Amino acid sequence: MASTPSITITRLDLQRLEQLLDSLDDFGPAAEALQTELDRAEVVGHDQVPAGVVTMNSRVHCREESSGKDYHLTLVYPQDAGGEGKVSVLAPVGTALLGLSVGQHIDWPVPGGKQLKLTLLEVEYQPEAAGEYAR
């Protein structure tokens, strides 16, 4: 990863993501990348996370800088991925989005050796901001 902006996650998301990692049969590169992000994150209570931070089940608007293409994505657990715009936290872009704040960007390697530069433009929905803690 060429760029690693500071990230914030909730204590509840941390607990759930650690349980997810513990449950994996194959702790491969995707799991290692997520563990690295969890290890470096600032952890806060669900009532302390700013509204402009990407948490689990947040819907975001981001832009891939080289193409200018906009994406509307929802960050989900692996079992919920696959629907339109739903990206798993174990996918490279999902791991990259976790904990980002509006205005931050991250460089993330993708298959074929390319780097994507994603800029977070808006958190359109965040469960914590909506008072939905049991998501």
Automatic annotation (TrEMBL):
Keywords of the record: Kinase, Transferase
Transcription elongation factor GreA/GreB C-terminal domain mapped to chain residues: 50-125
One GO term of the biological process aspect: regulation of DNA-templated transcription elongation
UniProt KW Transferase keyword: yes
Single GO molecular function: RNA polymerase binding
Keyword NAD: no
Pfam families membership: GreA_GreB, Rnk_N
Residues spanning the signal sequence: none
Domain Regulator of nucleoside diphosphate kinase N-terminal: 5-44
Name of this chain's protein: Regulator of nucleoside diphosphate kinase
Lineage: Bacteria, Pseudomonadati, Pseudomonadota, Gammaproteobacteria, Pseudomonadales
